[in-house]
Specification:
The structure is a homodimer of 116-residue chains. Chain A has one domain: Sandwich (Jelly Rolls), CATH 2.60.120. The first copy, chain A, is mainly beta. The longest helix of chain A is centred in the N-terminal third of the chain and has 5 residues. The first copy, chain A, has one helix and eight strands; from the N terminus they run E-H-E-E-E-E-E-E-E. Chains A and B meet through strand 1, strand 2, strand 4, strand 6 and strand 7 of A and strand 1, strand 2, strand 4, strand 6 and strand 7 of B. Strand 7 of chain A pairs antiparallel with strand 1 of chain B.
């Protein structure tokens, strides 16, 4: 039970699309992640997907359009909605997903989500 | 389904200890709130309490000590733990709690959590 500094946690890795768990909130993993390039289109059948941009800018492609999400902005993708985050330049993001949820929506391709 | 700018939402009110809902994540309210002064000691029997400091600094008093939580830091109070957030100067916070959860832990004294 102590404060968690997001920047210090992000400094512990440099890989992209590789979420690291920094805290627990009920049955959710609270994670930091670096985005650069394009993630695959995917969806989460049973959960919303929470993104908060900490630094940089991301683009969220969803059914019906693309949304620029800037530093200090959050975007929640509702459950079942196909989406693709991407970023031309590196972007740092706070991500919240239920524990056990594959980040790709598919356990076969999901990142391991190590804890920092 | 669109980006939510935290700063723009915070600019829509000036009251303290008055959380406003800006997004939904599964069955949780995602809120912004301004802290200044002392909140009462309280606990949430059935849920963790998620705080992310967006601007300024808060102090979280809990059993066993006090923690300074600075801009860019998060603090999750586990369920059942008595706590008191306070701030000498105004502090802006992102708060996540399950829908229906009273911010004081008690429906009789809870803030209404209006939606922005």
């Amino acid at each position: 039970m102590k404060p968690v500094n997001l920047s210090e946690k992000l400094d512990q890795f440099t890989s992209h699309w590789d979420p690291h768990v920094i805290a627990d909130y009920n049955d959710n993993d609270v994670m930091v992640v670096r985005f650069q390039g394009e993630f695959p289109f995917h969806k989460h059948a049973d959960t919303d997907d929470f993104f908060l941009v900490l630094e940089g800018e991301m683009i969220m492609d969803i059914e019906g359009g693309s949304h620029y999400v800037k530093e200090g902005e959050l975007f929640v993708v509702p459950k079942g909605v196909t989406h693709r985050p991407r970023a031309d330049k590196e972007c740092k993001v706070l991500l919240i997903e239920p524990k056990g949820e594959p980040n790709t929506g598919d356990t076969a391709t999901a990142a391991p989500k190590p804890r920092l």
